[in-house]
Specification:
By secondary structure, the protein is an alpha/beta fold. The protein has two domains: about 5-60 and about 145-320, QueA-like (3-Layer(aba) Sandwich); about 65-140. Helix content is about 15%, strand content about 30%. The protein has eight helices and 17 strands. The strands form three sheets. A nine-stranded mixed β-sheet has the order 2-1-17-16-14-3-12-13-15. The protein has a six-stranded antiparallel β-sheet with strand order 5-6-7-10-9-8.
Length: about 325
């Protein structure tokens, strides 16, 4: 498989850059992998479409890890923290400006804490704070790179799902954005946590897809009372957590599982709800592995023709009845 296999013509005006006025007001394209059919529906019809299914979703919550710093000259710089190295020390994704002015002290956070900045590798910076900052107070929202504007503190309430509750993610799982409390009350609802990283989503490079697995970072997950049979998943991060458990038998741990290819053996998940993904994104390989490459890409092309909204704030993609696999039996440790 190559990047071209996961590509389709996409007009950029279909990329949503802000939330819909009302949660739960979303179209939903419905793909049945067994019947090889594509229908058009609405998210409010989801409970009827998956009646009787055990539904799992990711309840991770965003960290406030986009930080702006200044120095006495008034110079400003902004970066995203991506990993805590030790107390007061973090790795960050920086810009050329950070590299240019590394080790120039003092840099100040919004609440006056000083920090030193040291370039470590391409676009990565080591940030050492004088003391641990209160990120809930000074941090801002990190939007995915596909949204070409800065986030706002007010947007924390609208960018992630209404059931997000366990802090730990740098990028929010958005598949459940349109699932209101009323809709969830009609589902056999279960939650797990997988904390997403900046390296969990990327644009595929022009090399064989199988050679790109090394780009997937380790992400921590926890699955309370794991399922014992086939389930329906809300979002690609939920699929990653469940399929990682199915392979390791560990209900919590780290996973860098990269799901791709028609021969991937889904052991737990046989249906999913996700967003309308952009062409040639790494998460598209998972959706195509579950539903079939040609059917899934053709459905996205049809969604473009019908002017569906794409991206984090976009409409919904429902995938039903993936090809049957061998019955699941939890690994014996």
């Amino acid at each position: 498989m190559s990047v071209a296999d996961y590509s389709f013509s996409f007009p950029t005006e279909l990329a949503m850059t802000g939330p819909c006025p009302i949660r739960g007001d979303a179209r939903m394209i419905v793909v049945d992998a067994l019947k090889e059919t594509v229908e058009h529906s609405h998210i409010r019809e989801l409970p009827d479409r998956i009646k009787g299914r055990e539904v799992w979703a990711n309840n991770t919550k965003l960290l406030h890890w986009r930080i702006q710093m200044t120095r006495d000259t008034g110079q400003k710089v902004e970066f995203d923290l991506v990993k805590k190295v030790e107390d007061r020390v973090y790795e960050a994704i920086g810009s050329g400006a950070i590299v240019l002015f590394e080790n120039v002290r003092p840099w100040y956070t919004e609440d006056g804490i000083t920090a030193s900045l040291t370039h470590t590798r391409k676009q990565r910076v080591r940030v050492e704070f004088e003391r641990e900052p209160d990120f809930d107070k000074i941090g801002n929202l990190s939007l995915t790179p596909q949204i070409k504007r800065p986030g706002t503190k007010e947007e924390f309430m609208t960018y992630e799902s209404s059931y997000a509750s366990i802090p730990g993610s740098l990028i929010p799982p958005c598949a459940g954005w349109h699932l209101t409390e009323e809709t969830r009350s009609k589902l056999d609802w279960h939650e797990l946590s997988l904390h997403t990283s900046w390296d969990g989503f990327w644009t595929l490079e022009n090399i064989p897809v199988s050679d790109q697995a090394g780009r997937m970072s380790q992400e921590s997950y926890t699955i309370p009372n794991p399922p014992k049979g086939k389930v329906f998943a809300v979002g690609t991060t939920t699929v990653k957590a469940l399929e990682s458990y199915a392979r390791s038998g560990n209900s919590e741990g780290l996973s860098n599982l990269f799901i791709h290819g028609a021969d991937f053996d889904f052991k737990l998940v046989d249906g999913m709800l996700t967003t309308m993904h952009f062409p040639a994104m790494s998460v598209m390989t998972m959706v195509c592995a579950l539903g079939g490459l040609e059917l899934v890409i053709d459905a996205h092309r049809e969604a473009v023709e019908k002017r569906y909204r794409f991206g984090d704030y976009g409409d919904c993609f429902l995938l039903l009845n993936s090809k049957p696999r061998i019955d699941f039996h939890p690994p014996v440790l």
